[in-house]
Amino acid sequence: IAGITQAPTSQILAAGRRMTLRCTQDMRHNAMYWYRQDLGLGLRLIHYSNTAGTTGKGEVPDGYSVSRANTDDFPLTLASAVPSQTSVYFCASSEVSGRADEQFFGPGTRLTVL
Amino acid sequence: GQNIDQPTEMTATEGAIVQINCTYQTSGFNGLFWYQQHAGEAPTFLSYNVLDGLEEKGRFSSFLSRSKGYSYLLLKELQMKDSASYLCAPMDSNYQLIWGAGTKLIIKP
Fold it and tell me: Does the distance separating the beta carbons of B42 and A106 come in below 8 Å?
């Protein structure tokens, strides 16, 4: 693989179900991010990780959790999905945090919660 | 508060020039990024400005005025493949990107 991959590509989920969105990068980037993108709004940061073993809350963290056990993987979990979490989710990475580095994006996961 | 303002939609003709404006207010400033996003795809990096002035990269140029909180993206010799959304994203004092909603650019033959 090259770059960032996300899985699944799309998912329809019943409200109340638990769901984990997967994200893997092979660029050895230290920083990783999860965004959601909704029509008419800019990308909004959910959670981020500056380096393996650390995570932080973004602008819209409620209802989501993340972990960063190693450099490559940064899964996003919805503990109990609600319809307002219907969105397109993008994972991104950059070489280093705390610096004006370009962010590289995965292809996205389109999630529908019914 | 932090705010980004860019037009929702613009239309231009193939072969022409178009300028997409962005005004911003952020808590601190560490430069401004422009990204391109085709429908159904991920954003991809176009440019980064941290100093005032114009940065040229092929058919695309980006301008920044920090004192005015203003940037623009200039696209020359428009091609049909330039039909996309263009996202303005200044970086705040915590090195977090603050994303505008994007400008959807429609290119007509």
Answer: yes
For residue A99, give the nearest of B44, B89, B95 by CB distance.
Answer: B95
A to B CB pairs, distance under 8 Å: 46
How many whole angstroms separate alpha carbon A27 and alpha carbon A103? 12
Q: Are strands A19-25 and A4-7 parallel, antiparallel or unpaired?
A: antiparallel
Looking at per-residue pLDDT, the higher value among B3 and A87 belongs to: A87
Give chain A's radius of gyration (CA, Å).
13
For residues B57-71, average pLDDT? 97
User: Residue range A36-48: average pLDDT?
Assistant: 94
Across A46-67, average pLDDT: 97
CA-nearest residue of chain B to A90? B42
A91: left (phi over 0), alpha (psi -120 to 50) or beta: beta
CA separation for the pair A97, B102 (Å, rounded)? 24
Mean pLDDT of B91-109: 94
